[in-house]
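Researcher: Please predict.
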Amino acid sequence: MIPAETLLSFFTVALLLGVAPGPDNIFVLTQSALRGRTAGLIVTLGLCTGLLVHTAAVALGVAAIFQASSTAFTLLKLSGAAYLMYLAWQAFRAKASKIAPGKASALDGWQCYRRGIVMNVTNPKVSIFFLAFLPQFADPRLGALPLQIGMLGAVFMLATLLVFGSVALLAGSLGKWLEGSERTQIIMNRVAGTVFIALAAKLVMTER
């Protein structure tokens, strides 16, 4: 079993990494501002679900393939960039709509959740990061490594949930302001589209 002090150190580092500006928390911020707090929280749950995939990949050694194979890394990277461009296209086409801060329909909720998963899973940097980061806090002398990796992944997801959830709640306050201005909604959609394009470009330029 991993010592409590090690888990606490890992949790602290994970919190700091979550606060650092990056594609995922920017994604949560824009979605929460445009769709409301609940949508932002659902996106956060989707991103955390994606972290489950990366944790399992590291525990099973699959992530090592992406570190060793430039082809696999490139394919995953381009898939993620293509999805971000699709989101940008949708954002630029979107018209002003009624925003209900803190509420989301079942369909919208599923879409937000799915977007969060795809956004996280198709980012190869997360797999490489987990492959390099999680094993540093694991010790073969303390038991099965896959179990320890799974425990560390769960702690990382908890930190992500706390940080990104806070971002969603704070950004969701913008929903009340956006509700009264169709022009502002359209501008925010254009901003979101631009952010998606920028994130896609950054992902394409990412090196292993």
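Model: DSSP finds ten helices and no strands in the chain.
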